[in-house]
Amino acid sequence: QVQLVESGGDLVQAGGSLRLSCAASGSFFSISVMGWYRQAPGKQRELVADITSYGTTNYAYSVKGRFTISRDNAKNTVYLQMNNLKPEDTAVYYCNALLIGNRYWGQGTQVTVAS
Fold it and tell me: Which residue of 18, 43, 45, 69 pairs with 49 in a disulfide if CB–CB is 3.0 to 4.6 A?
């Protein structure tokens, strides 16, 4: 079982920056993939970025060049640095962990970007 706790969501102005953090706890040896998804009102949840335990990253096209995902395996923590935020980035951001074929979710953290 894996518990994920996110932090860092906030209200920012367009062009601003935020850093999201997600700490994983529980009984496990390693998490193969950690990532961030987001869900805006009335829209489906979508992948923002993910990172493997080896550091291989994957980004949604809409955030490439603006967001950076990183991971501290020793701390079982994943980060999402978000720069040049746009109003369309407004959503609830969810941390995700993939472990032995099971997917776990955090409770979500709200990011609101004002124009």
Answer: 69
As a whole number of angstroms, the distance between CA 102 and CA 33 comes to 11
Return the DSSP state at 24: E
- Which amino acid appears at position 31 of this protein? I
> Following CA atoms 95, 2, 107, 19 in sequence, which dihedral angle do they give, to the nearest 10 degrees?
-40
Q: How far apart are CA 84 and CA 12, in angstroms?
A: 10
Instruction: Give me the mean pLDDT over the 69-93 stretch.
Output: 96
Give the integer Cα–Cα distance in Å for 32 and 38. Answer: 20
| pLDDT at residue number 111 | 98
- What is the C-alpha separation between 34 and 21, in angstroms, rounded? 11
